[in-house]
Amino acid sequence: MGIERRPLREQVKDEILELLGQGRLDTGEPINEIQLAEEVGVSRTPLREALISLEREGIITSERGKGFRFAPIGARELRDVTAILISLESLALELSPPEHLAGIAPKLLEEARAFSAPQAPHGTIERYDDAWHDLLLSGCRNTRLMDMINSLKLTVHRYERVLIADEEILQRAAEEHELIAQHLLDGRLEDAVAALKANWTSGMNRILERLENHEEREV
Questions:
Q1: What's this model's pTM, rounded to 2 decimal places?
Q2: Terminus-to-terminus CA distance in the chain, angstroms?
Q3: Chain center to CA of 199
Q4: DSSP string, 145-187
Q5: Range list of H helices, the chain
């Protein structure tokens, strides 16, 4: 693991998710903390901190006396959560003041075009996507709505981290973000909302495709 200016637990968490995405961890068995700490190359303290953080995100679960294990994933949950997120983010965008959207549209377009770098690590992709959507919805003043959106995104991230980590996904997401930003730049809020819905739907379909392949490998 390379040295980064990020907390060690965050680096350990990303390493665990990378191993998970590569299929190098047995998701059907309890997590062996000693073995995993050796594989990641850290002591059990930062490993446990990373596991607790992953538990808060819903990626793993724990039972008293049984330790940690990876939470099951399924197509129905993903579809249900994505449908809710589509509605909530669309509402948040519609509630944003037009003058605010006009002001941030150039920055949104610039960020979308800039982030087409190949071979970006998944943690970077996730942080970019979150930051871009945060900026997109930064004009919404309904804090309860935004809290609901942020909470539900943790569930989607669980699927993204397990199943998706390639530059093709990044490129397609960046192109979809460009389209949303361009509509806002042109003052077409209705088209921007439609493009936002399409962005979430295509992201869900990309995950579902990989989920089907993942389930076939597990059989």
A1: 0.71
A2: 32
A3: 13
A4: HHHHHHHHHHHHHHHHHHH---HHHHHHHHHHHHHHHHHHHTT
A5: 8-21, 33-40, 44-56, 75-95, 98-114, 122-136, 143-163, 167-185, 189-218
CA distance 58 to 61: 7
Q: Which of 35, 55, 53, 37 is nearest to 45 (CA)?
A: 37
**Helical pair 8-21 and 143-163, crossing angle rounded to 10 deg:** 50
Q: Which residues pair with 62 in a beta bridge?
A: 68
Tens-binned pLDDT, residue by residue, of the chain (219 aa): 444 467 888 889 888 877 776 667 777 688 999 999 999 999 999 999 999 988 887 778 888 878 898 877 788 989 999 999 999 999 999 999 999 999 999 999 999 888 755 545 555 667 788 899 999 999 999 999 999 998 888 778 777 766 665 555 666 788 899 999 999 999 999 999 999 999 999 989 988 887 776 555 554
The backbone torsions φ and ψ at residue 69, rounded to the nearest 5 degrees and listed phi first, read -150, 160
Q: Are strands 67-70 and 60-63 parallel, antiparallel or unpaired?
A: antiparallel
Closest CA to 28 of 76, 58, 71, 75: 71
d(CA 88, CA 183): 19
Helix (H, G, I), strand (E, B) or coil at 57: coil
Spatial CB neighbours of 184, under 8 Å, sequence gap ≥ 6? 101, 102, 104, 105, 108, 192
Please report where in the chains the tokens 């446990």 appear, as a residue: 48
Separation between Cα atoms, residue 182 and residue 186, nearest integer Å: 6
